């Protein structure tokens, strides 16, 4: 066995994670990392403080980069493997969870819904423009009174001749007020169905949600559907029942398994750098055992979370990944990331509460990530159900 390294190693190099990746995966990761360094990171503190995101401009740039719907085949999408998509999410979320959200909702929720369940016309009409970032999509499942239990939704679609008429309210919808189309899930006489709603349709309104303390560099909206009339072909032919939207969630949750670790890695790198420079009681903060114990615990958690993400990515690439395995990944890696971001904040002292450093911004964002795409409690119950065969949701 080689001698232990006496050089400083980056947190993910500790376990030689790169050695598990192909040249192509490393190249994709590096491209996204460099894009974020040049085009995103310099603006993040301002966007977060202002509670604004230039989503349209950014979507076009992300489209040019090729990350929108990158794991989908055809229709202008790159068709990469799942691990590459996960690594892109990791780099985007190392910048900010809001940027990864924009990409997740576009690619894994709105585009995936069209790709998996849409008609050929839906795909031809929307997917190339969405992959290029020329059209933005959102995904309306949650309602003011139904988040964890989307099966209770009140938004309804009724037939009027051959048309559909949608009525209801969706809440907490990422990209809502900048979207060109909304994939809206509604109850019908045949159970839950998905509808493609161009946002210029009369009766559709999107109202921004303000005063957020988390995901501030992300557009979050309420969608109001006030008798929105749609043609017969607006319904997604391939999705019937709650399994339709839940199938899309598997995709987006998978991206979060990797993405959350990006926020954690960035926090840890920031804390390692800060503690090396900060002198307390006459020596660097990084030279104290208490500090090293914190850093070591965080690096162990980050590294094991990364190995879990890669394992799940490989299962997905093999076509065998199961929803309860995605729940294990989302539950573990988001909890881990939040714990790391909070612990890093302690190491930065008072500086840690400012936007001069990314750490508290990541911690604040991860509070949303813990809640959306299934709360940690929902994922614990999914895993519990898999272990016991008993559903404890109701
Ligand atoms: P249940 O009776 O268990 O299932 C209903 C039907 O759905 C099927 N199913 C799934 N299919 C695919 N993937 C999954 N993960 C699935 N889970 C269940 C199931 O087989 C059944 O099919 P069928 O044919 O028999 O009808 O449903 P339930 O009502 O008991 O609810 C189960 C529960 C609680 C797990 C589910 O409702 C749930 O996951 N709740 C959490 C909701 C959630 O995650 N919402 C996220 C909204 S989107 C979002 O947050 C975007 S954030 C922005 C960003 O990502 O950046
Ligand atoms: P609730 O379901 O009311 O849950 C409240 C608490 O009760 C949680 O702790 C929960 O875990 C717990 N709980 C619920 N059920 C049980 C149970 N059976 N047993 C024990 N505890 C339980 N939704 C979309 O459709 N599209 C989007 O683009 C989107 N983007 C979002 C962006 C942001 C920034 C946020 C914060 C949310 C977004 N959401 C979106 C909504 C998100 O998916 C929901 O917030 C989430 O599913 C939880 O629903 P809820 O907020 O109604 O909480």
Give the biggest beta sheet: 4 strands, antiparallel
Task: Indicate the overall shape.
Answer: globular
Amount of helix: 40-55%
What is the first-to-last residue Cα distance? 53 Å
Number of helical runs? 10
**Could you state the oligomeric state of the chains shown?**
single chain
Class of secondary structure makeup: alpha+beta
Along the chain, the helix and strand elements come as HHHHHEEEEEEEHEEHHHH
Number of strands: 9
Evaluate the radius of gyration: 21 Å
Q: Stretches where pLDDT falls below 50 for ≥5 residues?
A: none
Distinct compounds present: 3-thiaglutaryl-CoA, flavin-adenine dinucleotide
β-strand amount: 5-15%
**Strand order of the biggest β-sheet:** 2-3-7-6
User: Overall pLDDT, averaged?
Assistant: 98
Explain how this protein is built.
The protein has 394 residues and is an alpha+beta fold. Helices cover 51% and strands 14% of the residues. Helix 6 packs parallel to helix 8 (323-347). The chain has helices at residues 23-50, 55-65, 82-95, 97-117, 120-131, 243-277, 289-318, 323-347, 359-371, 376-388, and strands spanning 137-140, 156-160, 163-174, 181-188, 191-198, 204-208, 220-230, 279-280, 283-284. The protein has a 4-stranded antiparallel sheet, covered by helices on one side. The relative contact order is 0.12. The protein binds 3-thiaglutaryl-CoA (TGC) and flavin-adenine dinucleotide. 3-thiaglutaryl-CoA is lined by residues 101, 104-105, 139, 141-142, 148, 150-151, 174, 241-243, 246-247, 249-250, 252, 323, 372-374, 378, 382, 393.
